[in-house]
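FORM 7B: Structural annotation worksheet

SECTION A. Query
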Amino acid sequence: MYESFYGLSAKPFRLRPDPHFFFGSKGHKRAMAYLEYGLSQGEGFIVITGEVGAGKTTLVRNLFNNLPSEQIVAAHIVNTHLDSDDTLRMVVSAFGLPYENVSKADLLTRLEKFLRLSDEQGKRALLVVDEAQNLKPGTVEELRMLSNFQTDDKCLLQTFLIGQPEFRTTLHSPGMQQLRQRVIASYHLGPMDAEETRAYIEHRLSTVGWKGDPAFSSAAHAAIFHNSGGIPRKVNTLCDRLLLMGFLEELHAFDEAEVNAVIADIAQEFELPTTPADIVNAANAANPVAPAQAPVPAPAPPVATAESNPLMDERLMRLEKSVVSVLNILKKLVATPAGANTPLNHNNE
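SECTION B. Predicted structure
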């Protein structure tokens, strides 16, 4: 919608992970280095954790885009709400092998044959398990057992476990000692700092042809970082809405006021609404004999304000008018005599 208005070739702040927009912050570069180190070792487990929206899946897809397909055959699992048997089927399926209507023994046999054939062809097998925090201990143990497939001098399957921070709790639980002994590297991907967040925004914009329109002030960048905490997905959500507002209001420059206005809009959307039924129930409690004759509009929920912000002042004025209108309606309802049947003026609805 706003792409043509700003002369962009595509949306720069999509929520779906896209390796085309990969940004190498210090944390992301280090996490990628750990993954590449794991590949160079050709054995064991690599564990990468990070907060929700930190860019873990984008990291994995960037890795897959750069894998030498003539040397590595890779499989990626993202559905991890499974028991151990279903996980084995998922692994077999991810490598393109038939998995339906066969026993667990047959699944293991098929997988081992595949891994040995890949080794004979000069290829190594890599399994990447995303959303590892959802894995049950029994499932993690099943994955560990798969690392037992090996020849005399090499492992036939290497596994990368990618998940949210709570996966570390599973990893350090008493029953995971054997798995921990096979983890050759582990890294936690943290948020970006303020400088990296600004560079991240400009990188994504430049990737789709940004030439400085729209412009972001230093205060706007500071407000975006303060609200997002440097989490890429939060930055994407806020910036996408900011560009949409800029398109609707024909803005070519963003300052702190515009960022705060969008933040307030997003916060308002996630508030519990005050429904008309709430106001009617309050009126009936004050005058139980006189039920409401028509739905009463609810006041708009309050929004965050920013000092000296004209847009916020205008919203507050509309809010005050709405509240006054509702109070007048409530007074009429309470003042209605018991048994009266005086309808409200529907022309004002």
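SECTION C. Observations
The beta strands are 45-50, 72-77, 124-129, 157-163, 183-189, 215-216, 253-254. Confidence is low (pLDDT under 50) at residues 289-294, 302-308, 338-349.

SECTION D. Sign-off
Analyst initials: ____
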